[in-house]
């Protein structure tokens, strides 16, 4: 059985999908981008600020499911420019403990929704 996870503390979906789906003890989040959930505005002028907002949106979805970043077992990071990798990675590292950090891939893509610079999704387990 699947349970839809939805919170007003993260941006509403911009298409036919949900913020996350939980099945059993597994949570699968949709990719989060830097939309301010309070204003609906994109924040993409500074890659570090953008990445922090993406991670805060992801945190809000995890919390709605009763989880934290410690529950995350896998992330996928999509970036529009690999030259931003170091700055994105520096911000990302603030949200995970090195000893228990999840598995991850980082992929450069041609474009992302709303032409943002970074999108991150996660798989978590309770």
N-to-C CA distance: 16 Å
Poorly predicted runs of 5 or more residues: none
Number of distinct beta strands:
6
CATH class: Alpha Beta
What are the SSEs and their pairings?
Blueprint: E1 2-5, E2 20-23, E3 26-29, H1 47-64, E4 72-79, H2 85-93, E5 103-108, E6 118-125
Parallel strand pairs: 4-5
Antiparallel strand pairs: 1-2, 2-3, 3-6, 4-6
Helix pairs in contact: 1-2
Question: What does the model show?
Answer:
- The chain is α+β, with helices and mostly antiparallel strands.
- The chain has one domain: RutC-like (60s Ribosomal Protein L30, Chain: A).
- It is built from two helices and six strands, in the order βββαβαββ.
- Strands 1-2-3-6-4-5 form a six-stranded mixed beta sheet, with helices on one face.
- It is globular, with a radius of gyration of 14 Å.
- The relative contact order is 0.24.
- The model has no long low-confidence stretch (mean pLDDT 97).
Task: Name its key features.
126 residues; Reactive intermediate/imine deaminase; YjgF/YER057c/UK114; 60s Ribosomal Protein L30, Chain: A; 2 helices; alpha+beta; 6-stranded mixed beta sheet; globular; deaminase activity; RidA; RutC-like_sf
Give a quick rundown of the structure.
The protein contains two helices and six strands; from the N terminus they run E-E-E-H-E-H-E-E.
């Amino acid at each position: 059985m699947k349970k839809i996870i939805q919170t007003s503390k993260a941006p509403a979906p911009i298409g036919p999908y949900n913020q996350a789906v939980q099945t059993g003890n597994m949570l699968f989040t949709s990719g989060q981008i830097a939309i301010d959930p309070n204003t609906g505005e994109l924040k993409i002028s500074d890659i570090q600020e953008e990445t922090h907002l993406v991670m805060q949106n992801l945190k809000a979805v995890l919390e709605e499911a009763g989880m934290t970043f410690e529950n995350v077992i896998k992330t996928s990071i999509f970036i529009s420019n690999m030259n931003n990798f170091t700055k994105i990675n520096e911000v990302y590292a603030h949200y995970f403990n090195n000893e228990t950090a999840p598995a991850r891939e980082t992929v450069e893509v041609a474009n992302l929704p709303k032409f943002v610079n970074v999108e991150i999704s996660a798989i978590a387990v309770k």
